[in-house]
Amino acid sequence: MLSTDLADLKAYMADNPGAVIEDVARERKVSPRVVIEALPPEMVCIGSGEHFAAAMQDIAAWGEVTLIVHTDDAIFEFTGAIPAGEIGRGHFNLMQPQGLHGHLRHERCAGVAFVERPFMGKSSAFVAFVNADGGIMFKVFVGRDETRALRGDQLARFRQLADRIAA
């Protein structure tokens, strides 16, 4: 990416921090990781993908969150507790027979991004698991309370995890 293009993207994201990351990436023909990295530095920090399992284990203790998988064809949302998992047979396996379960290709995770930014007029905070191609595997959003504010306990856990992983 040319430095002028990167400067333009950074300016755009500073003016529009709530822009949908995947849309900006598609419009600018860059990876979602590049868009995340273009956010103002006070809104994002990124740690190594080697922390995938540790991050997922921590998130499993947060309670109800929203997990989003955003592709070109669909946006899937799951709201509930993320199950604990373990690494086996080449995958990070979510160990639950019903609800959210599956097998995640943890070795493709190249970064764990922690993003706090305004979105649709409200504060938001999410962990984005970024793959080796710069795409977003999935995002886990801090939950909201009955007033639609971010849950304080989860936000504290989010920030503690960010400090450990992205320090």
From TrEMBL:
Pfam families for the chain: ChuX_HutX
Q: Which domain of life is it from?
A: Bacteria
Matching entries from InterPro entries are given as: Heme_Transport_Util_sf (IPR053733), HutX-like (IPR010413)
Name of the protein in its database record: Heme utilization cystosolic carrier protein HutX
The record lists the organism as Bradyrhizobium symbiodeficiens
